[in-house]
Write a structure and sequence with these properties.
It holds the Pfam family PLDc_N. The protein is mainly alpha-helical. Helices cover about 60% and strands about 0% of the residues.
Length: about 70
């Protein structure tokens, strides 16, 4: 395993990509949590508290919620 790198050791491009990735992740999670909070329990596939935890898992959580967690009639 490699040596730990500091933020200042990263190139400007790597720093920008890291920030963009973090912003996208936070936007996805925020949108998913907001949608989940507004939905009634019967409009969600499964329990809301489980989806709230799943959404916290990197990109896959919010995307999974939007694809599989919401009931669309």
């Amino acid at each position: 395993m490699g040596e730990a790198r500091r933020w200042s050791d990263l190139s400007r491009g790597q720093q920008v990509r890291g920030i963009i990735g973090a912003v996208i992740q936070l936007a996805l999670a925020s949108a998913a949590w907001a949608d989940l909070a507004r939905r009634d329990e019967r409009d969600v596939n499964g329990r809301k508290w489980v989806w709230a935890i799943v959404i916290a898992v990197n990109y896959i959580g919010p995307i999974s919620y939007f694809l599989f967690g919401r009931r669309v009639d």
